[in-house]
């Protein structure tokens, strides 16, 4: 599945029309009070008609992902709470800033990149109210002061099982070993998709211990990347990465798990190694100066429910973030869930706080290497 920066390819015309619709449906006056019922909060629930007549806007990246969000959580929340919810998108950070700076915020809940959300906590985004949002079923370490995960997937190593099935690559060191595993390798060529991925993989391959990755040694990482540059094929979008597997143009790929799943489902002879896979998340956030923050918190709380998360996974292939979620998937789909204990145990720990602080400069450095 495509990630945030790749998903921003929606046309300006579509975005403008959606924004106009949102402006017409959002921005109602703050109600005198919102009674969500007695506590404590329980994810996946909302008091019947608690938000009756309230206009809200939910913003995400469009496509099958936002359709899945709408069917799994947003529409059911509207039906139960009584709120009128308009869909808008794609997520646009410049628009968020413009709304917050002008104190004319029309977006209520926004699906954003998780690292961006950390960087904007207390700036463009407001702290979440964990008295209204039940995070007890979200794995420890995934929530922050201003965000909760919307779903999870991963940056994984995919390999051609026809070519390497007898002796498959098992981690990022093997990905960079062109002698033992010859062939073309696919990696992201999009400057905005540097976190996490190429730098961490290159350093692991160069012998850096997983718990010693940060701060990232960019010079060392790019030197390692340069050593295999002639073997690299760069993809700009999730769709491109998937096509590289399906066409057989590459033998290995650093790819988002959802796109690898889609390629395999379409018949590509690839297998995924989850050894040292890197977690990637979108986050649900509430902009500063939102008109109805308590209603926004209620929607997020509902979205985090086990039933809603299971349905979202069934519709999109993204992994649920509620530990009680039990999506009904075929064996192939189950094998790609990054939330399963077997896969989760192989995760490479990413320092998202470090990335939140350094992402702009890292994007510049990744862009410079790509253009070099």
UniProtKB/TrEMBL annotation:
Annotated coiled-coil segments of the chain: none
Record key words, sorted: Signal
Nucleotide-binding in keyword set: no
One Pfam short name: SBP_bac_8
Position of the signal peptide: 1-28
Gene3D superfamilies associated with the record: Periplasmic binding protein-like II (3.40.190.10)
Protein name, UniProt field: ABC transporter substrate-binding protein
Organism for this UniProt entry: Nonomuraea cypriaca
């Amino acid at each position: 599945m495509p990630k945030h920066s790749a998903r921003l390819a929606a046309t300006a015309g579509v975005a403008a029309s959606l924004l106009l619709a949102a402006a017409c449906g959002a921005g109602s006056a703050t109600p005198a009070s919102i009674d969500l019922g007695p506590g404590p909060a329980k994810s996946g629930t909302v008091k019947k008609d608690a938000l009756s007549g309230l206009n809200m806007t939910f913003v995400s990246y469009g496509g099958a992902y936002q359709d899945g969000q709408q069917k799994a959580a947003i529409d059911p929340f509207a039906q139960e709470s009584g709120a009128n919810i308009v869909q808008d998108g794609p997520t646009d950070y410049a628009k968020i800033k413009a709304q917050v700076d002008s104190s004319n915020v029309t977006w209520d809940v926004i699906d954003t990149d998780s690292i961006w959300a950390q960087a904007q906590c207390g700036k463009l985004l407001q702290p979440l109210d964990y008295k209204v949002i039940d995070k007890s079923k979200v794995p420890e370490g995934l929530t922050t002061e201003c965000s909760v995960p919307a779903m999870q997937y991963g940056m994984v190593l995919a390999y051609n099982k026809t070519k390497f099935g007898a002796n498959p690559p098992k981690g990022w060191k093997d990905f960079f070993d062109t002698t033992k595993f010859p062939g073309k390798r696919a990696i992201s060529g999009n400057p905005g998709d540097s976190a996490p991925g190429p730098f961490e993989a290159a350093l692991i391959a160069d012998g850096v211990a997983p718990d010693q990755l940060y701060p990232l040694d960019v010079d060392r990482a790019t030197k390692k990347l340069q050593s295999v540059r002639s073997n690299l094929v760069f993809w700009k979008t999730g769709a491109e990465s998937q096509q590289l597997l399906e066409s057989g143009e590459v033998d290995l790929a650093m790819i988002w798990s959802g796109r690898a799943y889609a390629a395999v489902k379409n018949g590509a002879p690839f297998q995924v190694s989850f050894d040292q896979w890197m977690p990637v998340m979108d986050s649900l956030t509430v902009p500063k100066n939102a008109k109805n923050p308590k209603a926004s918190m209620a929607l997020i709380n509902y979205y985090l429910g086990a039933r809603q998360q299971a349905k979202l996974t069934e519709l999109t292939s993204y992994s649920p973030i509620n530990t009680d979620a039990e999506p009904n998937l075929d064996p192939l789909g189950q094998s790609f869930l990054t939330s399963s204990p077997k896969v989760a145990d192989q995760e490479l720990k990413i320092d998202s706080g470090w990335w939140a602080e350094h992402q702009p400069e890292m994007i510049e450095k990744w862009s410079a290497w790509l253009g070099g």
